[in-house]
Structure formats: C-alpha cells, structure tokens
Amino acid sequence: MFKPISSILFATNLTDHCKPAFDYAASLATRYQATLVLLHVIEKMPDYVEGRLRGMLGEKQWREMAKAHENNARQTLIGKQSESRLIREALEKFCIEAGIDDNSCGYHSREIVVTDGEIVEEILENAEKFECNTIIMGARQGYISKGTTIGPHIKGVLRQSKIPVTIIPPVPME
C-alpha cells in the first residue's frame, strides 16, 4: 500500500520537454493537496575536465578566462541579478506558462530550489530533505527514432531512489 502523497519533487532542466511533467506534477499536487518542490540543478564541470583545461592553458590564463566567462555570462544573461534569482524567475515563468500560479493552484505550497552539483545526487538529497513521497521527471524526445528516450540522470535516479519515480514523456513532435 502506498503512503499518502504529501510532498512531490519535480526535477527540471527548464526545457520544453519538461512541461508535460510539470503539468502532471502540479495536477498530482493539487489532487493530494501536496507541497510541490521544483528543483533545478546546475551541473558542475567535472574535476578532470577542469584539470585538463588548466593544464593546457596554464593557471593564470585559466583564472583569467574563467573570470571573463563568468563576467560575460552575468552581463549578457542576468545583468546584476544573481544566477539563483534568474533561475527562480525562470521556474516562476515555467509555472505561469503551464497555467499554474499560486493564486489558482490547489496544491498546498510550492518550494523552488536551485542548487549545483552532481544531478542525480542532488535530486535524491533534495527528495529526502523535503521528505518527498515521489519524484517526477520529464523524458526527452528521441533523436534516432520518434520514441522517448531517458538519459543517464533519469536512469541514475531510477536506480538509486527509495521512493517512486515517475517519468513523463514529452509531447510528441509532429
């Protein structure tokens, strides 16, 4: 017998293929009056890649390039806003575009979490932290065939999760 659903973790990379999964998560949260936790994880560059780049460029040039890239990205993408705030705003927009806002929704509450690190690990840790009863993720449209594919992050969550995980296919391309 399943435990009652009181908290749902929706993990998203903010792409369009996640919208059907968000609709499902919001619908489920409304049905059970559950807390909906929206999670976006910013994946860090693996240490070995960073190490190789540092070795090729030299420490000084690496730091200069990293700093310049960070400054350019902030100027271009977010101006004076913090990265976390930009992503929170993107999640808010994602919710609004899906037709869900806090005033009209029937779910208990919404938490927005932006973190960085290893994606599978962060999803599982946040599911535990927020005492979630289920995890919902969106699959992507397949490249070779018209089927739905799941990537390594979804596979990792499916293998390691101790709570139910639901994978929602994207809206089929026409």
Give the tags:
single chain; 174 residues; alpha/beta; two-stranded antiparallel ribbon; 6 helices; 7 strands; elongated
Descriptive account of the structure:
The chain is of the alpha/beta class and 174 residues long. Mean pLDDT is 75; it is low at 72-84. The protein has a 5-stranded parallel beta sheet with strand order 3-2-1-4-7, sandwiched between helices. The protein is built from 6 helices and 7 strands; from the N terminus they run βαβαααβαβββαβ.
Strand-helix topology:
Blueprint: E1 7-11, H1 19-32, E2 35-43, H2 47-57, H3 59-78, H4 83-97, E3 109-117, H5 119-129, E4 134-138, E5 140-141, E6 148-149, H6 152-160, E7 165-168
Parallel strand pairs: 1-2, 1-4, 2-3, 4-7
Antiparallel strand pairs: 5-6
Helix pairs in contact: 2-3, 5-6
Summarize the structure.
With 174 residues, the protein is α/β, with parallel strands linked by helices.
Mean pLDDT: 75
Order of helices and strands: EHEHHHEHEEEHE
Q: State the helical fraction.
A: 40-55%
Strand order of the largest sheet: 3-2-1-4-7
Strand content: 15-25%
Major β-sheet, in short? 5 strands, parallel
Estimated radius of gyration: 18 Å
Low-confidence stretches: 72-84
Number of helices: 6
Which class do the helix and strand fractions yield? Answer: alpha/beta
Shape: elongated
* Count of individual beta strands: 7
Terminal Cα span: 39 Å
